[in-house]
Amino acid sequence: MPKASLALTAVLFCWLQLCKAQTFSDYIFVASNNGLVYTIHFWEDGAQFSLSEASRHDGCGASPTWLTLRTSGGLWCLDEGLLSAQASANRFTLSLDGNLAHAERINISAGPVQSVEIDNGRSLAIACYGGEFPIQGGVTTLVTSVNGSIEGGKFLQLPPLSSPGPKSAQTVARAHGTTLDPSGRFLIVPDLGADMVRVFSVQNGTGSIKFENQVKMLDGSGPRHAVFWRHPNATYSPSPAYLYVVSEFASTITVFKAVYTATSLALEYTGQTLSTLGNYSDSASLAAAAEIAISPDKRFLVVSNRNDTSFVSPPSDSLAVFKICPSDGSLEFRQLARAGGRWPRHFDINTAGDRVLVALQRDSKIVILSRDNDNGNIGSLVATLDIETTDTSGKDTGVNAAIWMRTPQA
Known about the structure:
410 residues; mainly beta; Methylamine Dehydrogenase, Chain H; four-stranded antiparallel beta sheet; globular; 6-phosphogluconolactonase activity; Cycloisomerase_2; Lactonase_7-beta_prop; 6-phosphogluconolactonase
C-alpha cells in the first residue's frame, strides 16, 4: 500500500477512535414527589448533548424521595409517605436500557430520606426522619436474601430529646442520613433533631446495628448528610479517615477525624467548621445546605446550597467546591458555582468526574453541568430537562433526587 494511503488510513482510524471516545450514552434515574420514578437517557457526542425521557414508573408509592443503586443489580427507592401516611422501601429490577420493574415493597417507619447498603450489600440502612410530634426518627435496616428479595426489617428508634432544639423541626430526634465508614464496620447517622452525629456498629450477617457513641454538634445546626474521605493511595490501617458533616440549618461543613480501635470508631473534631458558601456570606442566613459528595478522584468535596440565590441573572442557587488537603483532611474553599437553578436538593457526580447531575427541586428539572477534573471547578450548563412533577391535584411537587445509572455505551 502506498505511503499516502497508509497515512490516510492512520488518520481515518484515529478520527474514528476519537469519535468513539467522544460518544457517550448513559441513563439517569429521577425521583419526583408526584409518585413517579423516571428513566432519562443522556447522550453526548462531542459538543452535542441531549436529555430525553425513556420511561416512567409509578411503583415507588406517592412520594419517592431517595434512590440507591444496588451493588448486586437493581434499584432501591424510598417512599416518604407524605400523602399516603405510610412510608415504604421499594425494590426494582433493572434492565440494561434503564427500564425498571417493581419487585417488592415493604412498609417502614415514617419519613425515609436516605439509604446506604451495609453488610457487603446484603442489608440496607435507611434514615427515617419521623413525622409530626411525637413520631420520632430512627434507622430501619432491611435484610435481603441471596436472590435479592427482602427477608425482613428492623427499626431502631433514636433516643428522645431531653428538650426541644431551637429550630421548629427539632421537637424530636430526626435521622437524616446514613453513611458507611471506609472499613464497612460502622454506620454514621446525622440526627438533625438532636444536633448529634451518632455512630453505630454494623452487625454483619444479622442486618442489625448497635449504638456505639455520639458527638454533639452546634445547637440549631441541623446535621443532615455526611461523607467519609481517606487518601486514595492509602491502605485502611493505620491511615486516618475523615468525616465531613453538612448541616442544613447552619449551612456549614464540620470536619471530624475518625479514630479507630480494634472494636470501635469515635469522631474527633478537628477544629474546622466552614460555611458551605465559602467566602460568600451574604446569603448565609437564607441558605439551607443539602447534599455533600466527594469527587471520584478523592481530591475535592462538593456541597449544594438551597435558597441562597448567590447568582442573580439568571437566578440560581449554588454548588460549592472545596479542595481536600491530603495530609490532614482539612478543606480549602475553591469555588462557588451556579447550580443551574433553584433548590438543588440532590446532585451526583458521574464516574468520569466531568459531569455533575443536579436535581432542582423547585424548578422541577434536572441539569447536567460540566466539571474540570484538574482543578475541580464546576462549569457551564451542558444539558437540561424539565421533569413532569404535577400530582393528581394539580400541585407542582418538585424533584427530590437524581442519580447516574453508570453503564456507558459499549
